[in-house]
Amino acid sequence: MSEQQKGSVYFVGAGPGDPELITVKGMRLLEEADLVLYAGSLVNVELLKYVRAGVPCYDTAGLTLEKTMELIRKGAAAGKTVVRLHTGDPSLYGAIQEQIEAVNEEQIPWEIVPGVSSFLAAAALLGRELTVPGGTQTVVITRQGGRTPVPERESLQELGRHGSTICLFLSASLLDQAAADLMVNLPADTPAAIVERVTWPGERFIMTTIGEMAADACAEGITKTAMVLIGDFLTAEGNRSLLYDPSFSHGYRTSQGDGSRGWSK
Question: Which residues does the UniProt record annotate as the domain Tetrapyrrole methylase (predicted)?
């Protein structure tokens, strides 16, 4: 079969859980799909309501890469539109690079469709801006090393030196070690928020500190499916953005004189 006759594979970001947080394009592709593969341990099965009746949908949570690729290969060879549904955004801890390399070897056309990541949904739930005017302008997306290590230069000990916003993935069961590593360079009272099952029914969060976050998570029985946000952005207040300050000029507006440099109490 020629490449022109082959089906296509779409790696689609499903979002953090809420079925309405998939993108319009992702929803359309699910509606058009002839074959859907999804990780049932992470992806909300409510998203499958967008799939046409009779279209095969395979839960890949228990499959190896080889088994998953076999399904993709057969679907593409039959000219099908294949949707590989990933939780959040596929580019973050999505294990898509190995899949892309495999479809490239098979000369199967593919495309990545971005999704809403859980760290963004967590910030929305908390009502916080990850980058704060007058404060940190950097967001670090990382995880605590465990059975799967991280490079030593990217350890939480090293990343804590910057005092930036930290979004901690895949680490809810490793908070004791995460706290110990962070407190090498950050004070124990640095704010932290543990957000469990964000956008799912029963979502909840705990406001805490890095010194107390492991104990607080344990007390609440939170051991997985939680995003941990760390940094002063969680309590920052008072500064306003220069972008909308009347005393600040830019390409779309000239200065209008002195503006307030903070919010009135």
Answer: 9-213
Number of domains in the chain: 2
CATH number for the domain spanning 167: value is 3.30.950.10
Q: Which domain holds residue 36?
A: 3-113
Taking only the tens place, the pLDDT of each residue in 107-154 is 999 999 999 999 999 999 999 999 998 889 999 999 998 888 899 999
Q: Where are the beta strands (DSSP E) in 78-186?
A: 82-86, 110-113, 139-143, 165-169
CB atoms within 10 A of CB 64: 9
The answer to whether position 166 is within a domain reads yes
The pTM of the full predicted model, rounded to 2 decimals, is 0.86
Domain shared by 91 and 176, yes or no: no
What 110-114 contacts at long range (C-beta under 8 Å, 24+ apart), as own/partner pairs, is 110/8, 110/9, 110/10, 110/11, 111/8, 111/9, 111/10, 111/11, 112/10, 112/11, 113/10, 113/11, 113/12, 113/13, 113/23, 113/25, 113/26, 113/29, 114/13, 114/23, 114/89, 114/90
Note whether 107 and 128 are same-domain residues: no
Token pair, residue 10, equals 């779409």
| Residues 129, 104 within the same domain | no
Backbone phi, psi, residue 65, to 5°: -55, -40
